[in-house]
């Protein structure tokens, strides 16, 4: 079994600031670092570090070889990553003393994927595999259609959120990840609450309040509390959670067990500065025992 992740690859340009800047404000940063990021790359690293075989479907520019090598170091299969005639995507991230952040993204090569590229990447995929995608690349509907036609589990992490994009792929989904704000925005756009969407499994993350899992086959909703930690940086925590859920399901875990493992991984992640480069591995997560 494997996870095929259609996702972004970014250079994260991280500035540590005393507070998040307001409109028109010039603010001196305390530090700067460059790391591997992008929601797609983060989720691929998380899935690989959680013990799954993960193939990343994405693109970089000629300046992005370092990012591909970093993915390989973290256990991700990068054979489906193309090099295209564009700059590698990048994100400017401001992180304040409370661990909150704001982010500006330049998509670059992430928007240069072709239907042929995706088709080649999925050539060996089977119904035992999963297909994961976010909203930081192009060709989302094409990828979801091809994965669904192969009988794969199709999962979408609907961020950065756009209601129209979610509605376009909604009929193809088996699993949908939303945060609390995104769930409210989608309900407003569709007139349907998360628990009633035409998707078998919906996970709504609630930050420090944990998450909710809706199973529309049974009509059941389960709530999971968050683990209590002191956050340092929330960047990549949701992506880590998603990657760990997908890895748990890929390894045959029941949804409840996958969510609990992913919740621990997300809690550990917010105690660290950075994104893909500091995502914890399975051994670290299993040894981590914060209070719930």
From TrEMBL:
Which GO terms of the molecular function aspect are on file? ATP binding; metal ion binding; ribokinase activity
Required cofactor names:
Mg(2+)
**Where in the cell is the protein located?**
Cytoplasm
According to its record, what are the GO cellular component terms? cytoplasm
Which residues are in the Carbohydrate kinase PfkB domain?
6-280
Residues at which substrate binds:
10-12, 38-42, 136, 239
Per the UniProt entry, what are the Gene Ontology biological process annotations, in alphabetical order? D-ribose catabolic process
Q: How is its activity regulated?
A: Activated by a monovalent cation that binds near, but not in, the active site. The most likely occupant of the site in vivo is potassium. Ion binding induces a conformational change that may alter substrate affinity.
Protein's pathway:
Carbohydrate metabolism; D-ribose degradation; D-ribose 5-phosphate from beta-D-ribopyranose: step 2/2
Cofactor comment text? Requires a divalent cation, most likely magnesium in vivo, as an electrophilic catalyst to aid phosphoryl group transfer. It is the chelate of the metal and the nucleotide that is the actual substrate.
A Pfam family hit = PfkB
Catalysed reaction(s)? D-ribose + ATP = D-ribose 5-phosphate + ADP + H(+)
> Could you tell me the keywords of this UniProt record?
ATP-binding, Carbohydrate metabolism, Cytoplasm, Kinase, Magnesium, Metal-binding, Nucleotide-binding, Potassium, Transferase
Binding of K(+) occurs at 233, 235, 269, 272, 274
Active site, UniProt feature: 239 (proton acceptor)
Quaternary organization: Homodimer.
Q: What does this protein do?
A: Catalyzes the phosphorylation of ribose at O-5 in a reaction requiring ATP and magnesium. The resulting D-ribose-5-phosphate can then be used either for sythesis of nucleotides, histidine, and tryptophan, or as a component of the pentose phosphate pathway.
> What family name appears in the similarity comment?
Belongs to the carbohydrate kinase PfkB family. Ribokinase subfamily.
Protein name, UniProt field: Ribokinase
From which source organism is this entry? Ponticoccus litoralis
Gene for this chain: rbsK
């Amino acid at each position: 079994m494997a996870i095929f992740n259609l996702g972004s690859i970014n250079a994260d340009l991280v500035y540590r600031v005393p507070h998040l800047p307001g409109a028109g404000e010039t603010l001196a940063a305390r530090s700067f670092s460059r790391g591997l990021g992008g929601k797609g790359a983060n989720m691929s690293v998380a899935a690989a570090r959680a013990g799954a075989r993960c193939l990343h479907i994405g693109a970089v520019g000629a300046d992005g070889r370092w990012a591909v090598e970093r993915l390989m170091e973290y256990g991700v299969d990068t054979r489906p990553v193309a090099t295209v005639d564009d700059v590698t995507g990048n994100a400017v991230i401001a992180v304040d003393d409370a661990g909150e952040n704001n982010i500006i993204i330049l998509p670059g090569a992430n928007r240069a994927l072709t239907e042929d590229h995706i088709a080649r990447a999925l050539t060996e995929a089977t119904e035992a595999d999963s297909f994961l995608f976010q909203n930081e690349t192009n060709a989302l509907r094409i990828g979801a259609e091809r994965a669904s036609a192969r009988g794969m589990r199709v999962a979408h992490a609907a961020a950065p959120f756009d209601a129209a994009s979610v509605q376009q792929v909604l009929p193809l989904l088996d699993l949908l990840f939303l945060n609390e704000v995104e769930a409210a925005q989608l309900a407003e756009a569709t007139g349907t609450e998360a628990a009633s969407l035409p998707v078998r499994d919906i996970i709504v993350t609630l930050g420090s309040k944990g998450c909710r899992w809706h199973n529309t086959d049974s009509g059941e909703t389960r709530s999971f509390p968050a683990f209590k930690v002191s956050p340092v940086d929330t960047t990549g925590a949701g992506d880590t959670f998603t990657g760990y859920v997908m890895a748990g399901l890929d390894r045959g875990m029941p949804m409840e067990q996958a969510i609990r493992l992913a919740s621990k991984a997300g809690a550990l992640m917010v105690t660290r500065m950075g994104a893909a480069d500091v995502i914890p591995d399975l051994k670290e997560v299993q040894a981590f025992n914060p209070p719930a």
